[in-house]
């Protein structure tokens, strides 16, 4: 049985999550600087959330090793073929959710930093971010 630490270091989806976490922290800091709202409480809350995600991933690795649960039935056939996956343990399932969460947070922070997006992508982001967070909408009202 592989050691948990080896899995954390060598798993491509977990490596991708770590990259997204770092990007989110960077854009979060840039956003805080731009808005002149550096707040250690918000930063600590974010770090606690990210540590919690990594703890969850570590625990799901253990659960995958113990239980061997396969959640592949949640994934549409086209996506399975595109991604080339035949199984989806608890770790991959949670990791995918966290990558989506971090992606939305990165896009929200990029938008709040004033990074321009093409019109169609900007409209799409507005719709997605409006559904998942009210923060962008509130910021748009303040800026208009």
Give a brief rundown of this model.
With 144 residues, the protein is mainly α. The chain has helices at 4-10, 12-35, 40-67, 77-83, 90-113, 119-132, 135-143.
- Per DSSP E runs of 2 or more residues, the count of β-strands stands at 0
Domain module count: 1
Order of helices and strands, N to C? HHHHHHH
| Portion in helices | over 70%
In what range is the share of β-strand residues?
Answer: under 5%
**CA radius of gyration:** 18 Å
Secondary structure layout:
Layout: H1 4-10, H2 12-35, H3 40-67, H4 77-83, H5 90-113, H6 119-132, H7 135-143
Helix pairs in contact: 2-5, 3-5
Structure notes:
It contains seven helices and no strands. With 144 residues, the protein is an all-alpha fold. It has one domain (4-115). Helix 2 packs parallel to helix 5 and helix 3 runs antiparallel to helix 5. The longest helix has 28 residues, at 40-67. The chain starts with a helix and ends with a helix. 15% of the residues are buried.
Task: Kindly list the characteristics that best describe this protein.
144 residues, mainly alpha, 7 helices, globular, disordered C terminus
